Amino acid sequence: MIGRLMQDRVISGKQAINELYRNGYYGRPKDDSLELTLVEAAYLLYKNKLDIELDDGVLGFEDFFTEAAKRQQYFELKYIVYKDLRERGFYVQSGVTDFRVYPRGGHPGKTPAKSFVYVRSERIPMPLSDLLPSVNAAENVRKQMILAIVDEESDLTYYEVKKVKVKGKTKLINPAQDEIRTTLLEDRVIVWDSESSQYLHGNGFYGKPLDNERLQLSLVESAYLLELGLIDIQKSDSEESMDLNDFSSVASSIEPDFMRKYMAYNDLRNSGLVPKTGFKFGTHFRVYAEMVSVDKIPHSEYLIHSIATDHVFMLPVMSRAIRLANSVRKRMLYAIEDRDGITYVDIGRIKM
Amino acid sequence: MIGRLMQDRVISGKQAINELYRNGYYGRPKDDSLELTLVEAAYLLYKNKLDIELDDGVLGFEDFFTEAAKRQQYFELKYIVYKDLRERGFYVQSGVTDFRVYPRGGHPGKTPAKSFVYVRSERIPMPLSDLLPSVNAAENVRKQMILAIVDEESDLTYYEVKKVKVKGKTKLINPAQDEIRTTLLEDRVIVWDSESSQYLHGNGFYGKPLDNERLQLSLVESAYLLELGLIDIQKSDSEESMDLNDFSSVASSIEPDFMRKYMAYNDLRNSGLVPKTGFKFGTHFRVYAEMVSVDKIPHSEYLIHSIATDHVFMLPVMSRAIRLANSVRKRMLYAIEDRDGITYVDIGRIKM
């Protein structure tokens, strides 16, 4: 079979439709010819199923590969992913995204594609503003969205990206009879009274005991309980109580991300979940779905990091976050505040 | 026992030397009195072993704690760490660092301190230029250096920080008869020839096979092999060979950290180690001590990240890196280039 390199396509004749398309779903039939992308052509050349001509000569693998890399950005990356998917037994077509992948046992004309695959180099930062429209586009046509990330040594990792709803079963805390008196010290809030400390800690796992009498609350916990009217917060150097605005402003000066973190915290608590700090995992929160008793702390299901809409993912950092989450059997979720509230995006490693 | 709050100390009388110092090693005897730090005093107050006077009154725990927080920066953090160490059975003294901690079974006057403990809030970024002098100071007097990091919920994590030497057993690769011909495509280098591909991959685990004939080399691998004179690198759009300067300059435009990464790579290879990409772990390298055959890849011992001398550790990020490394039974090392070469700093979580 012979194809001719023309711009960023390789065009083969009618016979190729039978031999390459009908028998392997390579390329796209166009009238009486078969149009192959550069990666398809390179793969067929590697498999000795196609010779490729340019001008008057026939190109060897090295020549064609080098030529293709000049004609298409990220050609090598796409080739690595295409080859991997093919060798795992999938039929792959080019599409609006890098590749459309058919489910096992399916192929063009028989079944719809299952996944949209986007190829990325670990070196190229990925803006959330690029990722989200792709996730939405895939969801709108009910496709699985997959990122195929190629590292500097050409190793491949596949990630599935999807929006998820989170919901827990933890009852919301009821206000105590009186507002609980607390003090904001440097960057944490202390509950002084033993009974109140036990109430807050025992009903929703708020705070951490300083000792057997007193409880320390984090800034987001304090803001949430203040907004619910459960606690009263004084500064250590005045007797005046702070309202949510005062407190948020102090908290934001301690922790620049405070408001963004708090919006996610608030949403999670109101969804019946119990968020606690994810510091040890390098994320804002680890999140429990149900907390019946602090004496029997369950496995936390999510690690959640709250990110701004202009966030740019550095892929090695994202890779580490997901790898760590998965290694402790948790899902890694990113929380994004938008007009409709908080959107949670789940990014998880998958085996193809 | 009664103490008097004076500035940032609590001073108690002669009797306290017997009751608190000789019997628990609290404070420091000075002439006929005992001088206690604010955290020591707060702890003794909590244990009902001390009453604290200010002006004409006696301070309750809440009053003293609030007052101390005003008088000393990071008082709460230090208190949390001090209390934790005490309750784990250690004798603790204040020192140039936050705390000097005595070994189990030891105490002031009997044994030298074993560790210097530095207290840090997860929220406060930690410059390498602060960390390194502390590591050196501890090493000079043969103490263990420990970071005690307090997270937003007052949970505590202890890290040991030490300089380490790294050494492997992998033989350096010998030059082949002729320079191996390779091409730099977009951001990776391709070895076209099957025999050369096998030689490089089989002798030191260089590169990754593109297929059963060709090998892909990463930028640092290519620079190293170029410097050794093993390979010749051509650009895809010219026939000219690149020298190390040309190549480094192109590589640095692709990867801004290239030179720093390469210096570490070079040092590791020359120390008999085999560094490969640590992308999946979010670090520059995963490192093998000995690679006898690529058919039997051993467990990699280190994750190594190369950082600049002006690097600032964000503690949640550091915590994640170490947690991930430890979860896959590897040590997390940071490589720093200085006048004498590369210094490796090992930061690992420890249980006190």
From TrEMBL, chains A, B:
Catalytic activity annotated for this protein? pretRNA = a 3'-half-tRNA molecule with a 5'-OH end + a 5'-half-tRNA molecule with a 2',3'-cyclic phosphate end + an intron with a 2',3'-cyclic phosphate and a 5'-hydroxyl terminus
The alphabetical list of record keywords is:
Lyase, tRNA processing
SUPFAM superfamilies reported for this sequence: tRNA-intron endonuclease catalytic domain-like, tRNA-intron endonuclease N-terminal domain-like
- Source species, domain of life: Archaea
| tRNA intron endonuclease N-terminal domain segment(s) | 1-65, 181-244
Record's InterPro entries?
A: tRNA_endonuc-like_dom_sf, tRNA_intron_Endo_cat-like_sf, tRNA_intron_Endonuc_cat-like, tRNA_intron_Endonuc_N, tRNA_intron_Endonuc_N_sf, tRNA_splic, tRNA_splic_arch_long
Q: Does the keyword Lyase apply?
A: yes
> GO terms for molecular function, please?
nucleic acid binding; tRNA-intron lyase activity
Enzyme active site: Y288, H299, K330
Keyword check for Protein transport, yes or no: no
- What is the annotated role of this protein in its UniProt record? Endonuclease that removes tRNA introns. Cleaves pre-tRNA at the 5' and 3' splice sites to release the intron. The products are an intron and two tRNA half-molecules bearing 2',3' cyclic phosphate and 5'-OH termini. Recognizes a pseudosymmetric substrate in which 2 bulged loops of 3 bases are separated by a stem of 4 bp. Endonuclease that removes tRNA introns. Cleaves pre-tRNA at the 5'- and 3'-splice sites to release the intron. The products are an intron and two tRNA half-molecules bearing 2',3' cyclic phosphate and 5'-OH termini. Recognizes a pseudosymmetric substrate in which 2 bulged loops of 3 bases are separated by a stem of 4 bp.
Q: How does it assemble?
A: Homodimer.
What is the protein named? tRNA-splicing endonuclease
Phylogenetic placement of the source organism: Archaea, Methanobacteriati, Methanobacteriota, Stenosarchaea group, Methanomicrobia
